[in-house]
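User: quick one
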Amino acid sequence: MAKIAMKFGGTSVADLDRIRHVAGLVAKEVSQGNQVAVVVSAMAGETNKLVGWTKEISPLHDAREYDVVVAAGEQITAGLLAVALGAIGVSARSWTGWQIPIRTSAMHGSARIEGIDPALLNERMGQGQVAVIAGFQGIAPDNRISTLGRGGSDTSAVAIAAAIKADRCDIYTDVDGVYTTDPRIVPKARRLPKIAFEEMLEMASLGAKVLQTRSVEIAMLYRVPVRVLSTFDPDAGGTLLCDEEDIVEKKPVTGIAYSRDEAKISLMRIPDRPGIAAAIFGPLADSGVNVDMIVQNISEDGRRTDLTFTCARSELARALSALEKAGPSIGYREITSDSNMAKVSIIGIGMRAHPGVAQTMFRTLSDKGINIQVISTSEIKVSVLISEEYVELAVRALHSAFELDAA
Amino acid sequence: MAKIAMKFGGTSVADLDRIRHVAGLVAKEVSQGNQVAVVVSAMAGETNKLVGWTKEISPLHDAREYDVVVAAGEQITAGLLAVALGAIGVSARSWTGWQIPIRTSAMHGSARIEGIDPALLNERMGQGQVAVIAGFQGIAPDNRISTLGRGGSDTSAVAIAAAIKADRCDIYTDVDGVYTTDPRIVPKARRLPKIAFEEMLEMASLGAKVLQTRSVEIAMLYRVPVRVLSTFDPDAGGTLLCDEEDIVEKKPVTGIAYSRDEAKISLMRIPDRPGIAAAIFGPLADSGVNVDMIVQNISEDGRRTDLTFTCARSELARALSALEKAGPSIGYREITSDSNMAKVSIIGIGMRAHPGVAQTMFRTLSDKGINIQVISTSEIKVSVLISEEYVELAVRALHSAFELDAA
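Assistant: Done. Structure below.
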């Protein structure tokens, strides 16, 4: 007997037939003697509808009310799946975030889980009752409903798995695992049977959409064995998130991620003096702009230099406005910006043992005539900023160069 | 300054434009210095959709899960209305049933409100914040979401009004008040400017759909002045529910209600002995059949007689099955049943002072050739069971006979 957390995303519960199919997958685990907690998303399209309504009534809506509206989607799915389980003779009950409770921070709209009380879930699961849990939601310190941000049900599932000390957490989705890169761009992309937590964290935060970044952080922190599986072909193999030590063959690069959601801002001829970075990035932080990559040119005359950084495309207007206001205290000559940027990243724990990986990346791009505008590296990844029009070309070329193509 | 509860039904909040319109009506009360609590239903069609999904997955669903699914509709409207109020500068926040809390019985799907804690609402309303409350829902003793049955938001509103000691409770709906009878059947039906609580209670329980019966009971018990108004024409006048003493002109009949949802069962040649009623109605009660009208013929020989009763059409099959099982202990010769029955009722507190009202009713129906099959009376109403095909004819004839037609 094992204790299992299962998670089903929006496309997996998109209609009543699919909810019945999910009930069948849960019943199979129960029939094998397992205790099961299931975390569900809203039915596909439902969240977009609710978000759309809220924004249409007021673009500047209260995030607490946004959460009240949007969290209803997961509540509906949880109730329906509990009914579907009952209909095939599986004992089940639904749980909302506040009933468990799943306590979160007060940051409505993108709250962080701060604690989950596993007592009630453990008691009922111990009696053989399946816990059907509304994902994406919790309860904030003010006793109001909170939500965890897009993809938050992944995080709910992994956090629940950690809280109940599940033997594994199975994330069922519409793809059969984590791929070396996006198969829509590279048809020769391969499913990875295993990926290290650290790699998955980089992949998720650098643009791979298969798991919410925060869910991988929690999985890594609590060592929750997470599997990514296909709802529609659950026997296809999937991908297991595991410790680095459990991966035997360590290629230099495991996967390639990309993000089109990038904008670049350059401040020309700023004074090359101590405190200039604070004068620039302080106002940006105050405006809620998340700065990603930063590069500062070497000063030619020791007095003035240029600085370039990137942020999400949706934050570009806010960033420019903040910088213009701070113009006098920064003292730049000119601002230029470009919103048609993309970031391409290579990721792999094998990089630590394989020198020259970055060099291979740069040469591959250079051979294709792709200009690299900004570079950012860590121990297990190299990211480059390029013009968006080259993103498919770059990803395909790198996928071949690092020998990731399927045979 | 007054304290006001407002309630808006499903058609009043059917889309975003209507929700904005409702926000305008609330803002108007606030601008007059009033403290406001607003109770909202689910957007028109939403509840039917959610109920339909639940039933499609399993006709024999767990009522607790039904409540989880269906209550989401009101939660969504409450959040959206709070956003709409914020967008026009009115301070507001949404409240779900469990947040207030609105405590109910454990009868999921048709729970009764057992208590409302007004402390949080009073505190916030005292600070000038509009309380936007999800109607139809509460929290059961097991800490799970409960719902109050169809039309339950009326009851939520009146119970909230009683709990916060509101000066009045305005029920906004798609008609501009309570009419002498259904205007779809009788175009000459008139809006009643006032109606006594007792009359409204009979009207509601005998088929008039304008208010849930339970809401009228609570209004009567706590003497909540309830007004029924049109959302789309709020200045049209409406109907005030009030004490009997506040109605000056007391006609013999105030209104005519009807219900098509009736079935009749007759047990032929049952033994005319003490205990026979218990032998019949005990098994029916145990099967959850609500028996309405009952008539027992006078025994001709002192040994055997016939008994007829009515129940809701939806309960006919269950009633027949219960009676067949109890056949040996009852000892009837034959059962007959008819599901095409209707009940027509005349209601009026003036009846107490006007003898002969029942006689006028019977003669009017007789003149139209309508056969009365069962009669039931109380101090302020007379109900008759007739064949369903005559229901429009009967209502129109009675509306004229009791001088209710508009000039």
